Amino acid sequence: MAFLTLDGLTKRYGEVTAVDSLSCSVEKGEFVSLLGPSGCGKTTTLQMIAGFEQPSAGHIRLGGRDLAAIPARERGLGIVFQSYALFLHMTVRENVAFGLEMRKVAKKELKARVERALELVHLGALADRYPRAMSGGQRQRVALARALVIEPELLLLDEPLSNLDAKLREEMQLELRRIQREAGVTTLMVTHDQSEALAMSDRVVVMDGGQLQQVDSPFNVYETPRCSFVSTFLGKSNNFAAMLESRDATGSVLACNGVTLRGPVAHLRPGPAEIAIRPERIRLAAPGEGLLRGTVQERVFLGAQWMLAIDTPLGGFLVARPNSGAQEVEIGAEVGLDWSPADMRILPAGEAA
Amino acid sequence: MNRNGAFSKAFNILFCAFMLAPIVVVLGVSFTPEGFLEFPPSGISLRWYEAILDNPDFIQAAWISLQLAFAAATVATLLAIPAALAIGQSRFRGRDALQAIFLSPLMVPTVVLGIAFLRFLSLFGLNGTFAGLTACHAIIITPFILRLVLAAVTGLDMSAARAAESLGAGRWTVFRRITLPAILPGVVGGWVLAFITSFDELTVTVFIVNPSTTTLPVRMFSHITQTTDPLVASVSSVTVIFSLALMILVDRLYGLDRLLIGEGKKA
Ligand SMILES: Nc1ncnc2c1ncn2[C@@H]1O[C@H](COP(=O)(O)OP(=O)(O)OP(=O)(O)O)[C@@H](O)[C@H]1O
Ligand SMILES: [Mg+2]
Fold it and tell me: CATH number of the domain at B55-260, please?
């Protein structure tokens, strides 16, 4: 049985269903991200696990125990709040020591454990500072040390990096992952940043509108999204409504806006469907060659790659091309678009145009 | 930063003069060597300060006022803290009503309050007692504290309390170790403001004192209804200096602008 299990977890606020029968599980030692757009119920889910919100329905089990009857202060979880929630009138050392004091840990051991936690987050030198006199990244690490020092069974992180600037955030992603691995603590992290979720997690739980959309490894949610929402929320994707006309063991045939396309083996019944192709899987060919003909509408240079917006009979395509050092095709150029059928994903009909 | 025009500068100066003039006059009068109120004083004398020492009833009244202000401010603070936490941190039915009740002593004319208290205390046989006075003063000054504490509570990050709870702290520990230190400037500011308000409360108090619990303002009031010697000026000056000293002490400890205007940028 999994270490943490959410079973039909539901939270209603009057008319609003913030979390809608969410079921998933986290294994011991795993780093799992809860990913979804703003307002999809991530924080609410975390608060229910932490014990600050009462579920309207469903169960939370941790290490075999049902948490329903256990108050927040007895759950023994490490929590890093989005705002860090540091105790501003206490020094860094006092902040970190707080949880151990509550556990009546003996003075000597307490000192040693606080020291060790501060070492872990590289803050040993700043132990006597007050949080107000620290940078965002440092505060975040104080919050992390404070949560880790009690050696929690489960670490809950609510958008821990969202207050940091882009560069610091990337550094802290690696740092956080290192700390988590060294401490070996099972971690559930809430984020709305898909690249953060992909970069850090063992598995990603994708949510939308309070409901679970997909649970999988970062590679799998990106490569084999199960629905239209997941394909567009993680990374960029060219999605079009299509009609699945036939399928067999070798592949499938789809009609899309009058164009007939070959696709991979489909698991759907013939009928309305949606196709998705990642921008980086599309190759440019000479006009008239490849699968589609198109005109370059827009060209954006992103350093490592170019992003092209290309108008085709199917609609607008985004195409990513690595920067090879050579000049890229000009705006207005006629091009051909080509991809291998295996790179196309066939999804249940969604809301894509 | 200072881009005030000549007009607003003049306004500020006039305003300060208007606020300070009575105090300057009282201080001036208190140093007169004469036996009547005179300003500017014709000389400098400590005669009327010495006279305070010859009036043990004034000293007795001042002592009662100090004790009363201390007790009432403390009682009111103990009422205001839980009320502010409830009003500021949670949503429940009757929350606005609760706040209105706590602030209502500000809205009722003090004379009306005085008469009401008189009736009420007689009912319990507490009229003129120190306990009765303390209760009435506590009611009058609670709104002052409540507003300062409420301001502190409203600016509070609730997640700090949750963080403490998740680390294993019980409700009382969370309050004592996390919430109270965070709102302490507001609490101390409210206590001082309440102390001073109680210390010079007159309108309500005249209705409910008896000779053994006469407060300083009531004593001074009855003094000037009989004679108009500069004794009241010297007594007033002493209380002004006392209030000033209290303010300076609090400023040293917590920063006065932070208390009265809100959280400053001090680390
Ligand atoms: N106390 C509450 N009362 C009513 N509705 C609430 C309450 N708390 C949250 N909600 C609603 O529940 C939904 C989920 O909120 P939640 O805070 O879990 O979102 P989130 O996924 O954490 O979003 P974000 O990424 O913006 O933090 C939202 O629609 C929100 O408006
Ligand atoms: Mg949130």
Answer: 1.10.3720.10
